[in-house]
Write a structure and sequence with these properties.
Length: about 130
């Protein structure tokens, strides 16, 4: 038995394969792209990029930061690593801002913490840049 494929059948198969591959390629990018900014009284403002679900960017610890944000579904305001941290009463304001996209949802967050210890207790790696 001899099997012959026509040119039309081959072209149709190729077109099907190409159209099936396009959505898969689109899903391979990060599902979250955020900017994290830290402003400390008397110091230069720092801003980094954080991508999650393909963790990376210029954030110093993207895996740890993304793990924390995944636990709160991308809502940085819900992070609370330590509810009663043992911190000094030093007043050195740390303003954290996070904005961008988290799995199709807009993220806008900013908060001023009394000092670095309180900031780290709230957001850990997600806030530490």
């Amino acid at each position: 038995m001899k099997i012959t494929l026509s040119a039309a059948a081959i072209a149709l198969s190729g077109a099907f394969l190409m159209s099936a591959a396009v959505p898969a390629a689109a899903d391979q990018g990060p599902k979250a792209v955020l900017k994290v900014r830290l402003a400390i009284a008397g110091e230069k403002v720092r801003t980094v990029k954080l991508t999650c679900d393909r963790d990376g960017g210029s954030h110093p610890t993207p895996r740890a930061a993304c793990r924390l944000l995944r636990a709160v579904d991308g809502r940085p305001g819900e992070l609370e690593l330590e509810s009663h941290p043992t911190c000094t009463r030093e007043f050195r304001p740390h303003m954290v801002a996070i904005w961008g996209q988290w799995r199709g949802q807009q993220v806008k967050f900013s908060h001023v913490y009394a000092n670095e210890c309180v900031m780290k207790a709230a957001g850990g790696a997600a806030f530490t840049i």
